[in-house]
Design a protein that fits this description.
Elements (H helix, E strand, L loop, with lengths): L9 H16 L2 E2 H7 L4 H13 L3 E4 L2 E4 L2 H11 L2 H17 L2 E8 L2 E9 L13 E2 L5 H7 L4 H11 L12 H14 L2 E4 L6 E10 L2 E11 L10 H19 L2
Antiparallel strand pairs: 1-3, 2-3, 4-5, 4-9, 5-6, 7-8, 8-9
């Protein structure tokens, strides 16, 4: 059985630093990378050449950019995920029925990852997108996930990522968050009003198969569309029923 390395491989770390910088800058020249990274020009060239040889980097003139090979890999990983495989159609239908933005999310490494988004006729434009990673504590779809993780795992996530405030409504106290998660478990869904994005409301429900948490599905809408009472019972029921139907589809695939 292979054992996990006790120490990181420096060469790999340097290649990843090059990749991350190219991602952050949407392309760069070697001299740009040399100014930002603690590496020589020759070392940077070697890393870029290797990445280019394997198809992960492309070169245009003197500028290097990440290739679509990363999209290929990410697409393969996502396509093997039952939540995505069976959830796309459900999210499309939920978005069409509510005219809102529907989202599919799973948890990885203590953060939420958007697997799919579907837009209804009046869907709001947000900064999220497929593959986007986000804290779990300040959005309904994230709280729907946290509520069904073991308390020890939630503590680990908080210890690592904290409870940063995105707006003045964000829950930043650990005990308050655990109390909210208990409410989510009691009612079977999570809601959120302006905790991550001001004037935005969300409702999320977990997708669980035989007790195993796969992720969650949600809808998002501007608060002004909901009136003073928030989400009505019909919309709440639709999100919950969609999550339940998705779980059944996955179970009996």
């Amino acid at each position: 059985m292979e054992r996990e390395a006790n120490h990181p491989v420096r060469t790999t770390e340097k290649s990843l630093a090059v990749v991350e910088h190219l991602d952050a800058t949407d392309g760069a020249r070697i001299r740009d990378l040399e100014a930002e990274l603690d590496m020589t020009k020759g070392a940077i060239h070697n890393h870029l050449s290797t990445l280019r040889e394997h198809g992960y980097v492309v070169k245009s003139g003197n500028e290097y950019r990440l290739s679509f090979e990363f999209l290929t890999l990410g697409g393969r990983v996502r396509s093997r995920t039952p939540l995505y495989e069976f959830g796309r159609e459900k999210a499309d239908q939920l978005a069409a029925d509510t005219d809102m933005l529907a989202n599919l999310m799973t948890e990885e490494d203590g953060r939420g990852v958007y697997l799919y988004q579907a837009r209804g006729d009046y869907a709001v434009n947000l900064d999220t997108h497929v593959g986007y990673r986000i804290p779990l504590h300040n959005i309904a779809i994230g709280k729907a996930i946290l509520a069904y993780l073991p308390d020890e795992r939630v503590d680990e996530i908080i210890d690592r990522w904290g409870l940063p405030a995105a707006t003045e409504k964000t829950t930043t106290d650990r005990d308050e968050l655990f109390a909210e998660l208990e409410t989510v478990r009691e009612q079977g869904y999570a809601t959120e009003h302006g905790e991550r994005t001001e004037s935005l409301a969300c409702i999320g429900a977990p997708v669980r198969v035989d007790g195993e948490l796969l992720g969650a599905i949600s809808i998002s809408a501007p608060t002004h569309r909901l009136g003073t009472d928030g989400f009505d019972e019909d919309i709440i029921g639709e999100v919950q029923s969609t999550a339940n139907e998705l779980a059944l589809d996955i179970k009996y695939k």
